[in-house]
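agent: user wants the full assembly modeled, not chains individually. Plan: 1) parse entity lines 2) check alphabet per entity 3) run joint structure prediction 4) return tokens. Steps 1-2 passed, two entities, 408 residues total. Proceeding.
--- entities ---
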Amino acid sequence: MNHADPIQRLILAFSRLPSVGEKTAARFTFYLLNRDQEVTEELSNALNALHSTVQFCSTCANLSAQDPCRFCASDKRDSSQICVVEDVSALMAIEKTGEYRGLYHVLHGVISPFEGIGPDDLKIAALLRRLQGHAKADSLSDMEVILATNPSVDGEATSLYLSELLKPFGVQVSRIASGVPMGSNLQYADQLSIAQALVRRRAL
Amino acid sequence: MNHADPIQRLILAFSRLPSVGEKTAARFTFYLLNRDQEVTEELSNALNALHSTVQFCSTCANLSAQDPCRFCASDKRDSSQICVVEDVSALMAIEKTGEYRGLYHVLHGVISPFEGIGPDDLKIAALLRRLQGHAKADSLSDMEVILATNPSVDGEATSLYLSELLKPFGVQVSRIASGVPMGSNLQYADQLSIAQALVRRRAL
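--- prediction returned ---
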């Protein structure tokens, strides 16, 4: 590889992205070479804008160009619900369903002893401060905190930890449902999801 | 989608790359957000350098920051061999084998009546000029032009067209071999490749 060569340089830069190997990076590069320069420029400018304008929302720790972020700044969101997510991609996935109109809180990770990530490495203190701030204005008993960490080992453990921490505030604490995915086939579902679907079955 | 948002803007810019959907584009974006700013900057700078520094080599039409490109400028390459390829990614694939020490000529496409691409849309005239230039210095009968367009319908047709065009120059014209891929299993090989492997069989 000749790194002074602009083509090789871009291939190398692309191949640092997750799950992008050298062949895919080369495909991206030659695609851009064959397109108008504008496509390349827009990608370059968007990359430049990323770190310079994105910051944590001081309320919910969402990543945004504004502080407060568009959820915390909106008067159309239900401020009696806070949905706690692991990261911004989970927030976006929930937002895309159109089912949720409350606020968010982004932890930026989960407690993971294996990876050496403890509660202090996450935005948990900010969540507690947020509830303490609320206590003065509204009644906390009307509030619901929905724990929407991933249904993984670390996500479940983090949810359990948070629920112990949040209950003393007198808020309602709930956990998103786990079970077999909608539209799936039991034959191909994993055993844990089927087991959850049975244990958490609801009366009809 | 809120396009003023820097995260959404980068996701949109990434999703214009081939085979990158919104989820992959989001994964790239959040990956970069979680890495040092340098990784993002290097990708942005490499993108900026692409169109501003890359040009056609005036000899072989390879894309390069230098003219002549590193192959045409090298005195270690065998100038009696010219390997004709469809595009720079094919050149790179051949170069990576380490088996070829001659020069290249990049067509930047193949003749494709279906897509309205004729001989004049490719770097064929430059290849003929190159041989005419050669005629003054060396003996053309010692030269070999290896046609390495892809073994597709258009690639085969382009090879055939080029061989008719090149033979009057008195150069040797050859075509890369087609057959079953090395290390493959006949059970899974396509019928055309097996047929080629039988027709092009060699005596041992």
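agent: reporting back. Helices of chain B lie at 6-14, 22-33, 37-53, 70-73, 88-97, 124-137, 153-166, 191-199. Chain B touches chain A through 48 residues (CB under 8 Å).
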